[in-house]
Design goal:
The protein has 122 residues and is mostly beta strands. Helices cover 3% and strands 52% of the residues. The strands form two sheets. The chain has a six-stranded mixed β-sheet with strand order 2-10-9-4-5-6. Strands 1-3-8-7 form a four-stranded antiparallel β-sheet, with no helix packed on it. It is globular and about 40 Å long.
């Protein structure tokens, strides 16, 4: 799969952004797990959220629960990350990821898109 991420930007604390992850090679996300990682300056990449394309099951890192929502649009073959109540510590480059493994999707995904910058001002 080839992944295209978009939707980053600059927002004030408390604001919202929606990131999109599209598959651009013409393949369907079925039966992959699709998710998001992020990396802040000077920090390691961190798992954020993932969704099972077939099952719709979702997993989040604790720091974004109740603020971020991952969901899929099957008709558009796209995964979204709705980010609300953004905090300055959410500032990172966000990467769309995919894998066939339910384990690897949260640890070391096989497929990565280019990053999109999210900056939250205080």
């Amino acid at each position: 799969v080839q992944l295209q991420a978009s939707g980053g930007g600059l927002v004030p604390a408390g604001g919202s952004l929606r990131l999109s992850c599209a598959e651009t090679s013409g393949r369907t996300f079925n039966p992959y797990f699709v998710g998001w990682f992020r990396q802040a300056p000077g920090k390691e990449r961190e798992f954020v959220a993932r969704i099972g394309w077939n099952s719709g099951t979702k997993v989040y890192v604790d720091s974004v629960k109740d603020r971020f929502t991952i969901y899929r649009d099957i008709a558009r073959n796209t995964v979204y990350l709705q980010m609300n109540s953004l905090k300055p510590e959410d500032t990172s480059v966000y990467y769309c990821v995919a894998d066939l493994s339910i384990v690897r999707i949260t640890t070391a995904p096989s497929y990565w898109g280019q990053g999109t910058q999210v900056t939250v001002s205080s």
